[in-house]
Amino acid sequence: GRDPACRSAGRRPDGSTGPCYCDQACARTLDCCHDYAQACPVIPCVVSQWSAWSGCAEPCKTTYRVRTRHIIQEPRNGGEACPALEERAGCVEYWTRQGTECQQSLIPALITTGGFGKARKKRAAADGNERAGYCVEFQLVGLRPGCLHSQHSHTGWMRHLREGHRMCVECRQPALRAPGQHCRGDGAGSRLNQLLHWQAVGNHQCRGTWRRIRQLDTCSCPSVHSFLFI
């Protein structure tokens, strides 16, 4: 925007006289000619509306989606610069590009207290092809304050959740899902120390994160502070 050759002599917008210029830089150096604003009006950048959001960059993992816009009018004569032309937002897709469900760690685990299992009839394996069940040990990393405000008798167990504690979660029928005979959100295939998500059944405000420690094929969850996958 600097063009020293475009020069004249006369009055400036502030009333002073002397050399004055007609290039865009004069707006910053305050040595424009008095008629600069009329001869060279400020033209701000004009951009289009945002496009629709794209899908997630990759399925089956925490990633991002994108929307874009383009420049319709470039700024001129010191006009306002163009804003960002791309915007990203976090997202998760639980389905592969082929339309099958993601069988891995980002699907939030739905859990309830192990006491609920007393009302469940354990189904013994009908044959050698069906697993009787297993347990997964997690370390609770974070939880929402909503867990502490559970008032109903069937959600009172949520008030005993504590960050840093280990949790034993049992996977058994009817939560075992074909074809891999696993429970949704059990963290199978997750990376070491990866933060995984859980959601308490009965209170949508009680949810948080944990880290998978190990899987126990011979399940021996303690009678207290044990949980079930739903």
Automatic annotation (TrEMBL):
Keywords, sorted A to Z: Disulfide bond, Glycoprotein, Signal
Pfam family of the protein (one): Somatomedin_B
Top-level taxon of origin: Eukaryota
Domain SMB: 2-45
InterPro entries in UniProt: SBSPO, SBSPON_C, Somatomedin_B-like_dom_sf, Somatomedin_B_dom, TSP1_rpt, TSP1_rpt_sf, TSP1_spondin_dom
Protein name listed in UniProt: SBSPO protein
Source organism of this protein record: Nicator chloris
